[in-house]
Amino acid sequence: MKYLPFILVLASAILTSACSHEEADGNKETSATAEVQEITIVPVQQLQPSKQIVLPGELKPWNKVNIHPKVKGFVKSLAVDRGSVVKKGQVLAILDAPESLSELSQAKAQLQAAEATASEQSTRAQASKLTYQRMLKTSKMEGAVSLNELDLAKARMMGDSASATVAQGNVQAARAYYQTKSQLAQYLTITAPFDGVIIERNTSPGALVGPSESSSAKPLFVLQDSRTLRLTVAIPEVYANQISGKGTVNFTVNAVPEKLFTATYARSGSSLQEENRSMMTEFDIKNTNDELKAGMYAEVRLPITRSAQTLFVPVKSVVSSSEKVFVVRVKDDKAERIAVKKGNVVDTLVEVFGNLQPGDWIVKEASDEIREGQSAKWHRTESQPVSTTSYQK
Q: What residue spans carry the Polar residues bias annotation (predicted)?
């Protein structure tokens, strides 16, 4: 029994050694497995797919105007109200301004007086001219007319001619003044500048109204033409160069959710607004049945496409780490990280910009664990076809 402790220690050492060998063998197997890890790689594709993005839009009237009075006066009568359909030139309201009418009468009297004076001066100038011409002809006979009389006749003719010219100038000034007052008097009758519908009426008979320099002053009427509507859409900067500039778009509105409307491309601002870095684009819609209303918000399906082919990779091929955004390219059976910038997402692919070429092999499902220069068993497979059209909000 004295050898029992020694035997136990020896047995324990043998067991420990056996376990260590088994663990080492297991690590070797794991290492070997890691070295022969199979990773799927796919080629970079060069595509020019189209897609549809969904953007908010707003329906605006073809024409809209706030109608303010140009002269001060009392509202004598109103011919329209909210909802009235009017034609261009139709009378909307009549103002009463006794001062303006009095000034018009005074201007008319001044014009008539100036015209009478001018007529008198013109007649006098003609008579003086005839007198001088007769005296000049008679003066050729010796002793018939003295030189002094001839000079006086000539001076009178020139003076009367100058007076006639001044009188004619006074007529022109009086006529201009009268036309100004006449125009102001015409402003007492307020008419519609175009066909449309009155959507606001902010005055009543007897109210004192007049021109105001304040932008917050309410107009007498608000008139709009909604027979054709403008669908305005703010295109984000990232899509600004992907608008075709022709064709149509589809949209829906909350008021008629079951119906899909169509609008035609019309015009674009061709520049970005500083406030939100977007490009305002307009599409026209015929609204003959008045089904759509100005002011409605719309959900617009806007088709976009690049002007040329670009590179696409699977979405899972792009890794976004704390350092950079990259894909893992396999070159000479070694992994290398290529920095990229992401673009449009189409189906299961994402557009990338970087030091890549069509046909380059990249890891299909990359991760931050794949290191630079790493080797693996690379399994090549072809990329799946992508849908030509996709929707994105």
A: 383-393
